[in-house]
Amino acid sequence: MKKLLIKFLILAILSLVVTVSVAQIIPRMLMAGEAIAFPTNSTFLQTAITWNETGKKQLEQGEAEAALKSWQQAEIAYHKAKDENGVIGSQINQAQALQALGKYQEAEKLLIKIQESLKSQPDSLLKVLAKRNLGDVWRVTGNLIESEKILQESWKIAVSLQSPENANAAQLSLGNTAVAQAKRAESVGEKKQAKEEIKKALNFYQTVLKNNPSPLIKLQAQLNLLYLFSENPESSEVEIWLKIRESLNEIPINHIAVAARINFANSLLKLYQSSNKYTPESKEIYQILETALQQSRNLNNQRLEAYTLGYLGKLYELNQQPLEAIKLTNQALNIAQLEQAWDIAYQWQWQLGRLYNIQGEKAKTIAAYKTAINSLDILRKNLIAINPEGQFSFRDDVEPVYRQLVDLLLQPEPGKKEPSQENLKLAIENIDGLQLAEIQNLLGCTNLAPSVFTNQVVDPKAAIIYPIILDRRLAVILQLPGKDLSYHETLLDRQEIERILKELRTDLTASNRKNEVVINSQKVYQWLIQPFDEILSNNQSIKTLVFVLDGYLRNIPMAVLSDGKNYLMEKYAIAISPRIELFTPKPLSRKLKVFLGGVGEAQNIDGKEFEKIEYFEAELNEIKSNIDPIRDLINNNFTKSNIEKLLASEEFSIIHIKTHGEFSSTPDRTFIVAYNQLLKATDLARLIETNTQSKPREIELLVLSACYTAQGDNRAVLGLAGIAIGAGARSTISSLWIAQDVANTALMARFYEELSKGISRAEALNIAQKALFEQYKSPNVWAPYVLVGNWL
Predict the structure, then answer these.
(1) Contact (CB, 8 A) for 151 and 167
(2) Which 3 state secondary structure label does DSSP give 60?
(3) 3-class secondary structure for 253-315?
(4) From CA 17, how far away is CA 476, in angstroms rounded?
(5) Residue 501: helix, strand or coil by DSSP?
């Protein structure tokens, strides 16, 4: 991708989690792009210094690829000069360039290598820098716990070396990681933790300001504070904007200063939009942006110019001057497209869509939204996918684009009662696209090639149901084989929909709330199924309902929906697909080879207590009695190294793991329990996806027994699906909450008994659940199980 915004450099100012400009320090604090130099008369060292300075200038101009090559040349020169510190310093600079190119994994590998080189050396400013850089990279790649840990180490060493500027820089980075942790906690419904992390961030930023930092670090801390206060407009602290205006005059006019000015204006626009009494008048914001525009043009920086024009357009939009706003937004978009800056382009395409919508121009509105999503697709394919709090907040910056377009598509044309077939198909495509984007965002990868388009799925016995939660309604699309799409919507605010779903989920996890479950499960049935009762009844061949669930609906097992007389699982087999394109339906092979693994013993790992699984051996023995051949690794044999050896040497069609585990949209909280260690989701996927004899492994089914998804996390099921996808499994079975041990054993035994007869996965699970239902009427016992992915 051409000129990625001075990508990392501008991220230091423009992004939500403001990254301290990967500063380099020897022997003084040098800011973004400034290279490490070691004054000497040696020819090789002089050559290295020259390459360092060249790299610095190139990065400042947004030429990250060239800067990387220059710093690689500097490393070679330091090697020839036998200057170890110089080599490490040039490697740190290379890591900076790699981040500017969006190559965070490469930067991470290089910085980890640097850590090893410095491990045996005494504490130094190089060690401070290397740790802070790695902490910043880990924040971007989602390793937040380790990010905080290593940044604390960087800060402690800086304090011990009496380097206040480096201590300030580390604390600024710690504040940024705290903001990322707050966003993550908020995304999974942990509001208390989110508030605690924001409080930590505020404390870090305020401490930095009290420590008399350098002008640029001071400005960055102030901008971060302003951003946090813009999220909480009630705070009088937003008057910090007056101090920021002064701070801007203390730094030289360069790319960083202009980016800071744009970031400043963006936060002020948020406050202006909320009508906060501490916000400056629009003419003040206009002047800030006009200055940034002139400075960006003087610096010949088209990306900054595109940002500035776009925000000027937003200001005119807020001032209800849509025609001028459209003109400025188009100018910004033209520049962004010429630069192939899709990370900027999509924002102004989205803004154009909103502006055209205000003007009542539906066709132009939809066209603008489509181009915005196309730009997001290009962006995902060209940049290494990173966590939600990295480049973009998925919830704030990506998801709304899809949802607003789907909302427009599902509005009927004048004189019509419901959307056209074409728009229904487009709505499905875009909600599919949203789910794919979410999974990529969770997995941190972009190589999930679609297997088959939804409308090409051929299963004459399956109906596919798409519920879509919008701000003012719940839309549902039904797809039957060979039939036109059917549509129904319920007018209801999102907040009320989520309130009912959360109540239902809470009641489901209790053993004595059956009546409450029936009341709310009937409501959800009325939303999703009742409008299509007649259509489904007239299609007697339909045996399986496949749900492509949205939002908080993912926390509810569809089996539990009730018409007042019967649960849905009494009528149909049920499966969940995060996106049909990712799972080409394919019948299970009759020749099954199963790997059984797990730990039933009580353990304490990393301070977490895991109780003994009482019916551990009973479940595994039941499975062995129904399916052969079997290989197993049990209790103290269920270790990472043993799993790796076995899966690398043999092929298995089913992997059944019986152990404690939890799945969420947070990598740090997604794990299964091995013997004396936790296997994170990435570890598990990496172990399972191992190829055998150079042939791609095809895991038909991954069963995670005694595991559950994190309550309140509406993306946890996607995390579960992500594990299956990452491991190359076509489907997975687990539970939404902790299953009862005796009941879980009975269900798994019956499931494999039915599976061995050659019926589909969905039917086998359905029969097992019905059997459990006959014995235990409480949904708390029989309802938690979900089949995600291929249902055949």
Answers:
(1) no
(2) helix
(3) CCHHHHHHHHHHHHHHHHHHHCCCCCCCCHHHHHHHHHHHHHHHHHCCCHHHHHHHHHHHHHH
(4) 36
(5) helix
Within a 10 A sphere around the Cβ of 324, how many other Cβ atoms?
14
Any idea which fold 462-582 has?
Nucleotidyltransferase; domain 5 (3.30.420)
Q: Are 596 and 630 in contact (CB under 8 A)?
A: yes
Q: Do domains 1-213 and 462-582 have the same CATH topology?
A: no
CATH topology of domain 1-213: 1.25.40
**529 in Cβ contact with 563 (< 8 Å):** yes
Region of 693 on the Ramachandran plot (φ > 0 left; ψ -120 to 50 alpha; else beta): left
Q: Quickly list H helices, 410-452.
A: 421-443
pLDDT in tens, 336-353: 999 888 889 999 999 999
Name the pTM for this structure: 0.84
Domain boundaries, the chain: 1-213, 215-296, 301-449, 462-582, 594-789
Q: Tell me which fold the domain 594-789 belongs to.
A: Rossmann fold (3.40.50)
Contacts of residue 234, defined as CB under 8 A and 6 or more positions apart, other chains included, come to none
d(CA 522, CA 305): 54
Task: Give CA–CA dist 107/561, Å, rounded.
Answer: 48
Helix, strand or coil, per DSSP, at residue 615: coil
Do 10 and 66 touch, CB atoms closer than 8 A?
no
Cβ–Cβ under 8 Å, residues 678 and 725: no
User: Do the beta carbons of residue 682 and residue 714 sit within 8 Å?
Assistant: no
pLDDT at 17: 26
**What is 353-371 written as a DSSP string?**
HHHHHHTT-HHHHHHHHHH
Grouping H, G, I as helix, E, B as strand and the rest as coil, residue 120 is coil
Q: Which residues of 280-315 are buried (b: 16+ CB within 10 A; e: fewer)?
A: beeeebbebbebbbebbeebebbbbbbbbbbbbbbb
Three-state secondary structure along 375-411?
Answer: HHHHHHHHCCCCCCCCCCCHHHHHHHHHHHHHHHHCC
784 by DSSP, 3-state: which?
coil
Residue 624: strand pairing partners: none
Distance (Å, rounded) from C-alpha 224 to C-alpha 321? 30
Q: At what angle do helices 7-14 and 215-230 cross, to 10 degrees?
A: 60
Give the CATH H-level superfamily of domain 301-449.
Tetratricopeptide repeat domain (1.25.40.10)
Strand partners, 464: 479, 546
| Nearest-angstrom CA–CA distance, 271 and 237 | 12
Decide if 87 contacts 78 (C-beta within 8 A).
yes
Q: What is the mean pLDDT of residues 713-725?
A: 73
Question: Is residue 28 scored above 90 in pLDDT?
Answer: no
Length in residues, the chain = 792
The DSSP annotation for 534-572 comes to: HHHHT-TT--EEEE---GGGGGS-GGG-B-SSSBGGGT-
> DSSP H helical segments within 188-249, as ranges?
191-210, 215-230, 240-248
Tell me which of 276 and 133 has the higher pLDDT.
Answer: 133
Residue with tokens 């009695």: 625
d(CA 14, CA 10): 6
Q: Given the DSSP bridges, would you call strands 462-469 and 603-605 parallel, antiparallel or unpaired? A: unpaired
> Which sign does the torsion angle of CA 325, 330, 332, 333 carry?
positive
Rounded to the nearest 5 degrees, what angle is found at the Cα of 19, between the Cα atoms of 38 and 104? 80
Contact call for residues 443 and 466 (beta carbons, < 8 A): no
What tens digit of pLDDT does each residue of 536-559 get? 999 999 999 999 999 899 999 999
Backbone φ, ψ for residue 712 (5° rounding): 90, -10
